What does this fold into?
Amino acid sequence: MHGPASPGWLLVALCAATGAYCLLRMRSSVEEQRRSAGTEALMGFGMAAMAVPATVFSPPPWAWPAYAAVFGGAALRALWAARADAHHLHHLVGDAAMVYMAVAMAASPGGHGHGASGVPLLTGALLLYFTGYVLRSGARLLPVPGPAAAAGGTVAWGDRPELARACRLSMGIAMVAMLLMM
It folds into this structure.
């Protein structure tokens, strides 16, 4: 997954900024904003950590199994939460993709992904899913008045649904980029 340095740093910045905004959304007074913000913050910071260029930092061998364990736990939580809200199915796919990438990085020589072995079927399926998600999310990225804006008040940064959609879109784009760099 560790490709050239410039795209790697761009991914780190994008994912870290997205994770930080998701932490801000966790403080929202709107229940639906808080509901998935923690999972999305974990995903943003996890993706930022995985995207650090290998020329700067090569994680120790135990880091990849640790990533797999953390995101495996998050996948189980998303599976449980999907019973009540279908949006958590997307979190389940994202967490499973993170587990898959961590396992692939741990299994590859030097921790650099699949290399010249080609694109495995699961990588291709995840690329198709996230590409479709990005296209769908991008098409839906129109300003939506939130609850306070509909009442004529100002909307807090953590309560802006269009910003939450933009964060989800940016994480989808980052996931596609990370899968391509494997």
Summary: The CA atoms of residues 27 and 85 lie 21 Å apart. The chain is about 70% helix and 0% strand.
